Amino acid sequence: MKLHVSLPGLEMKNPVMPASGCFGFGKEFAQLYDLNNLGAIAIKATTEEARFGNETPRVAETEAGMLNAIGLQNPGLKGVTEQELPWLQQLDTPVLANVAGTKMEDYEAVAAGLSESGMAAALELNISCPNVKEGGITFGTDPKLAAELTKRVKHVSDVPVYVKLSPNVTDITEIARAVEQAGADGLSLINTLSGMKIDPRTRKPLLANEIGGLSGPAIKPVAIRMVYQVRQVTDLPIIGMGGIMGMEDVLEFMMAGADAVAVGTANISNPFACPEIIQELTDWANAEPAADWAGWKQGGVKA
Amino acid sequence: MIQKEWMSVISIDEIAASIFEVVLEGDMPERIQAPGQFVHVKTSPHVAPLLRRPVSISEHWPKERRMALVFRAEGEGTSRMAAWRAGDEVDVLGPLGNGFDTSDMAEGEKALIVGGGVGVPPLLGLAKQLVIQGVQIQTVLGFADASSAFFQERFSSLGDCFVSTIDGSIGDTGFVTDVIDRRNLSYDAIFACGPLPMLRALDSSYATTKGKLSLEERMGCGIGACFACVCHTTDDPDGTGYRKVCSDGPVFPWGEVVLS
């Protein structure tokens, strides 16, 4: 079976990309392996101005998962386009640039700047970060706001726009439909689930921000269910993510309806997670020469 | 060069109450560049505990392909490590971070090494390196009490070693700074690793241009990608300037980062 996947703006050698926020801007991982192995790279969120983010501790371990509240630390649009994106251009791997902000104007400015740079193959609209005080997740939980933001970002962007959906909603299909009608080229889901952990000895939350985003294997069943539900209501390409640790998780997301996947927290516990999963997939694909992804996509789920 | 390696446990000993010293064998010790570097340990081959645990390298012997780690068994991950036995194969990522650069220390100069609790281990490798360079060393080690004290003999074999305990059960009663004041210790450079209040006290009144401090922080990836372990810089304490403890540190010059 061929692993190649073609999505709007993203010609992927295989369906696996590191998820935004778990991979920095790639340089650290480039010391460990050849990033050309990856299907694509979703870089850390860019905001208009540089951000320090939240105070530490910013991460806490949970049962088969982790909470994080980094707070969108990044060098800002200028820093990303001048210091981070140029370096990634030497790769034969498309870059999915994550866009974040607090107001609609911020998103427009960042999307326009990243699009104009010519160094991002596609944009991923982050309307689901639970770790900033304003904006972010507000846009991801109100279908009207999500649609309005998508429309405005589409208007200023020359590259395809994926909208990253929040699981912190009652009905994720409602948001999916709203952003599709507003012109989104694809969807990525899920972002982290809002969560909290308290140390009973100190009676204090483990995170300085108190509340953070839960990720890792603990959230995979939620992610699978949401990809499955969203696939019922849209034909848009879906980048599925949430707790992928190995090849079988990738297949599970494909069966639920994803066209490609993103690996997030696994990179934190094993920096070689992506190439290891891609190798497993390659071996599996070689053993299944007649199969193709189309057959795996939701059609693979047996009622 | 960072690698992920299955290393063999050669020995594991409880050297003080809940403090364990484990000796590991593999290729990694040959890649260690300086004392003060650390490793990131997966404490179980299963999914959970999910995150690695950053652990100090206390000593390494490249020719023997061995290194020693010291940790306090406290939570779920480190308690699993305490159950390691000789012959076990364990998943280690490293060597990570930047260790102690001692190239500015000249022969005959005096270094004061100050360690607190589980911050003591990386200072042992540092002390050995300084002695090889011909630097005179004095050590002050602070512990909560006698049961949690370790490495006094090893530091004593390298130079004068003073101990303080909060309850006075061994050594001087009080903190490491009390020992420095009471004994009027003089030095050209001070090197330290330990709890933040200790580092803050040293940074405000005892710091030297030469010498360094080593920080501890809750970490995610350990390689500088996830931004979990950042700290502010003193030249931009409220701004967007930062250092990553895992990959810019954990060793920093005195006065470079905000100790909060």
Sheet with most strands of chain A: 8 strands, parallel
Number of helices of chain A: 11
The ordered string of helix (H) and strand (E) elements of chain A is EEEHEEEHEHEHHEHEEEEEHEHEHHH
Largest inter-chain contact set: A-B, 39 and 33 residues
Share in helix of chain A: 25-40%
* Helix share, percent of chain B: 10-25%
Overall geometry of chain B comes to globular
Question: Strand order within the widest sheet of chain A?
Answer: 3-16-15-10-9-8-7-4
* Beta-strand content bin of chain B: 25-35%
Classify the secondary structure makeup of chain B into a structural class: alpha/beta
Largest sheet of chain B: 7 strands, mixed
Stretches of chain B where pLDDT is under 50 for at least 5 consecutive residues are none
Q: How many helical stretches of chain B? A: 5
Give the termini separation of chain B.
Answer: 31 Å
Description:
The complex is a heterodimer of chains A (303) and B (260). Helix content of chain A is 35%, strand content 20%. With 303 residues, chain A is α/β, with parallel strands linked by helices. Chain A has an eight-stranded parallel beta sheet with strand order 3-16-15-10-9-8-7-4, covered by helices on one side. In chain A, strands 5-6-14-11 form a four-stranded antiparallel beta sheet, with no helix packed on it. In chain A, helix 5 (143-156) runs parallel beside helix 6 (172-181) and helix 7 runs parallel beside helix 8 (247-256). The longest helix of chain A has 15 residues, at 273-287. In chain A, 59% of the residues are buried. The model of chain A has no long low-confidence stretch (mean pLDDT 94). Chain B is α/β, with parallel strands linked by helices and 260 residues long. In chain B, 16% of the residues lie in helices and 35% in strands. Chain B has five helices and 15 strands. A seven-stranded mixed beta sheet of chain B has the order 10-9-8-7-11-12-15, sandwiched between helices. Chain B is globular. The two termini of chain B are 31 Å apart. The chains are: A alpha/beta (303), B alpha/beta (260). The interface between A and B is large, with 39 and 33 residues.
